[in-house]
Design goal:
The chain is α+β, with helices and mostly antiparallel strands. The protein has nine helices and nine strands. A hairpin with a 5-residue loop joins strand 8 (206-214) and strand 9 (220-229). Helix 1 crosses helix 2 (33-40) and helix 1 crosses helix 3 (44-56).
Length: 264
């Protein structure tokens, strides 16, 4: 009985510690003990004791001049270790499989290499037609694919125009974007909606939709796409592909913009 009570107490301390860390992570500036206690529901003395232990371990930093707290340098050290061991493909695959089971169509993961997209992972079903462009290891010019357009949309105007000069915007189908003004207009739409499309631009009869995957720095590192024959394309895929891409981004350490707050 005593052992069970001790274990329960240890778990409770860990839960309280995590709640304090969550609040510190959500705040854009150092936070007072009063605010930490209010946000976690902990008694100030309890919060103070736990913060003291975490400060000793460099998980939390205390600013003695203001009496406020912030996340400590140890998290930066640990974060860099985790980051160095992250493999985007391994992180994304379970989420891709869940999306594939939901929609029943091919789900692709693409990364940028210079002026091309390279597909590094793909889920497919018996009902999905095999397309060479979207096989693992397949490559395509950025402007011909939904994932590639995400990366072009992340570039500045000068970089997009430099891409156009280098490549000449070659087309593969009558639907390919081969004019700069048309491409720029579509890239503006992608920036507004965080979503890109390929409407039979790489292959006739195939349509795709893609959403961005970002890392802990908010940088675009990959794109997630659904590819399907045009007659099976479903506009309702917008919601699940955005949600899945966001889940992968969060698994890579990406956080949504911090909420504004006022300390009172």
């Amino acid at each position: 009985m005593a052992e069970q009570q001790a274990e329960k107490g240890s778990i409770q301390v860990i839960e309280r510690m995590l709640s304090l860390l969550d609040v510190l992570a959500d705040m854009p500036a150092p936070v007072s003990l009063k605010i930490l206690a209010q946000r976690t529901g902990l008694h100030p003395s309890t919060a103070h004791r736990i913060l003291a232990v975490m400060t000793g371990a460099a998980l939390v930093e205390r600013h003695h001049d203001t009496g406020t707290y912030a996340l400590g340098i140890r998290f930066l050290e640990l974060g860099n270790i985790v980051k160095s061991r992250i493999n985007i493909r391994q992180v994304a695959l379970p989420y891709m499989q869940q999306l594939h089971e939901l929609i029943g169509e091919a789900v692709n993961l693409g990364i940028r290499h210079e002026d091309e997209i390279i597909y590094v992972e793909r889920t497919s079903s018996g009902s999905s037609l095999v397309r060479v462009v979207y096989l693992v290891g397949g490559r395509a010019p950025l402007h011909l694919t939904s994932v590639g357009k995400l990366f072009l949309a992340a570039d500045g105007l000068a970089d997009v125009r430099a891409y156009v000069r280098r490549t000449g915007l070659p087309g593969k189908t009558p639907h390919s974007l081969t004019r700069l003004d048309v491409l720029e207009k579509e890239l503006d739409e992608i920036r507004r909606h965080e979503l890109a499309y390929d409407n039979e631009e790489a292959e006739i009869g195939l349509r795709c939709i893609a959403a961005p995957i970002r890392n802990d720095e908010g940088r675009l590192v990959a794109g997630l796409s659904i590819s399907a024959p045009s007659d099976r394309h479903n506009p309702d895929w917008v919601t699940p592909i955005k949600a899945t891409a966001n889940e992968i981004s969060q698994a890579l350490g990406f956080r949504l913009p911090l909420r504004a707050f006022t300390e009172v």
